[in-house]
C-alpha cells in the first residue's frame, strides 16, 4: 500500500521546530488525494500544538466539512475561535451556520463583527450574510479622534428614496438626536461633549431602539500608568461597596443578590450592595431590582442607556468614594463571612491591591482544575465548599492578575491608578487584567485567597460573543503589557496553587460537596456555544475515513509509563516491515525516538481548558484504528477492548498475529 507522504524522509528526520509546517503540507497533500483520515490526524496534531493559529484550524474545518457535512457548523466555529477577528473566518463560520439553519445565531453574533469590518471597508460580504439571516436594519459606530463615525444599513424597496435613520447619542444625563444616511454611507458626528461615555442607539423604522454595534464610545483620556507607589502599612480596612453590574437573566440575578443579602449578617465588615442596571432589556429584571431598592436592601443605579460592562462597573465604583470595592458578577453566589475573609487578606500585608477567591469558573482561580470551568455548585454544595475552604490553612498566593468575577480592590489603589479603562477595551473581558497590570506597574501586588469559594455560572452577558471580545481586548493588553501572557503561561505551568488545591480537594472528599467534586472532576471541558452548534451534539461514534494505510492506536501514551519502551519497540518493528502499510497513532506523549521510526503519527492528549472539536476517542475512530494499545484503559469505552502494554506484551509476536489476522481487533 503506497503512502509516500508518510515515509521517513518526509517527517522522521524533520527538525522539531519545522514539524508543524511539514505536517500541514502532508495534510494538504492527503486532503487533495481524498485520504481524509491522514489529513485530519496531521491537522489535529498542529491544532493541538498551536491552538491560536488559524491556518491549521481552517484546514481541519475544510476536511471535516467535506468528510462529515453534519460537523461543518461546529468545525468552522472552532476555526473562528483560533482567530476571531479574521474576516474570512467570520464569513466562513456564518455561511456554515446559514446552511444549517442558524439564522438566529447569525443575527445575534454577526452584527458584533461590523464595527471593525465597516471601519476597514471589509463589510460587504458580512452584510450579505446578515441580510440572508433576516437582519434588515443594522450598522456600526466607532471613535475616530474626537468624532463619532459609523455606517447605518436599512433595507428599502428597489427604487425607493435614499433611506435616512435617526441616531440617539446618550450619556448618563443627556441625549442628542441626529439624522444620518442609512444606505451604508459613512457618517461623522462631532462628539457632543468631551470626557463622557456615549451610547449610540439606532431608532428602527418601527420606532424600536437598537444599540448600534460598537457602542458605547468613551471619550475620556485613558488611565495612565503611574510611578511606583509605597503602600501604607498602617492603613486600616474600610467599608466595602459590593458592586454588581446587571443586564439580564432574572433567575441568576435573584440568586446572586439573595445570597449576598443573606451573607451580610455573617460579616463584620460594613458593606453596601450597589447594583447598576445597565438598561436591561428584560423588564422583569428592572422591576425586581426596583422592589429591592424600595425595600432598602440595595443601592440601585440605573443607566438611562446601555453603557456596557466596563462603564457600568465604573459608575458603581464611584458611588461611595471612600469604600473599598468588591466587584461581583451577577451570575455568582456567595456564602458566610466571605467579605471578612477577603478583607483580612487584602490588609494582611502592605502593598496588596486586589484579592480574588476560589471558584468553579474563574480562569487560573478555578477549582478543581486550573483554567477549566466546572458546573456551578448549588447552595448546599457551595456552603460545604466555602466552609471547607475557610477551614484550610493554605497560604495566599501572588497572582499575575485577579479574575473579575469576584475581586476586592483597595480604594487607595483605585485613587492612584484609576478606574477600568473603556477607551480601548471593548465592552468587557480583559478589563481586570489591564487594571491589575496598571496597579502592578505602580508597585502593587495581587493575591489569590484559597480560604474563600464563590460559585460562578459564567458567560451570561456576552455568550458566544465572548470569543470576539476576548480576542479584541487581548491585543490591547499585549500591546500595553508585552510580558503579561508569558507570565500567565508560566503561572499555569508552574501551578503555585497546587498545594492549596490539593488541600481543598482532600477536605471535600468526605464533605457534603463530595458529590459535586466527583461531578466536577468528571465534567467535560465546556464553553458557551451558539445554539446551532449546541443543539447538534456529535454522535457517539464517527465512521472511519479513507486513509492511505492501516493504523493501530496507543491510548494516552506516557513516556514515563511502564509500557513506553514496548511502544517504541513496536514502532521499530513496524518500521522494519514496510510492506505491512501500518502506522502507530500515538495519543498522548511523543518523543523524537518515536518520530524517527517514520511510522508514528502523534496527537497530544486532548485535555485542557478548551472545548475540543475532536476528543481523543473520536480521533481514533476517524483513523479507523484496528487495535488500541495502552497501559491504562481508563477512558476507553467497554466495547473497545484494549491490548494491555504489560509484561506479557511481546511487540514482535503481537505484530505477527495482527498480520496473520488483519481483521482482528
TrEMBL record:
<keyword id="KW-0328">Glycosyltransferase</keyword>
<keyword id="KW-0808">Transferase</keyword>
<dbReference type="InterPro" id="IPR029044">
    <property type="entry name" value="Nucleotide-diphossugar_trans"/>
</dbReference>
<comment type="similarity">
    <text>Belongs to the glycosyltransferase 2 family.</text>
</comment>
<dbReference type="Pfam" id="PF00535">
    <property type="entry name" value="Glycos_transf_2"/>
</dbReference>
<dbReference type="GO" id="GO:0016757">
    <property type="term" value="F:glycosyltransferase activity"/>
</dbReference>
<protein>
    <recommendedName>
        <fullName>Glycosyltransferase 2-like domain-containing protein</fullName>
    </recommendedName>
</protein>
<feature type="domain" description="Glycosyltransferase 2-like">
    <location>
        <begin position="241"/>
        <end position="417"/>
    </location>
</feature>
<dbReference type="InterPro" id="IPR001173">
    <property type="entry name" value="Glyco_trans_2-like"/>
</dbReference>
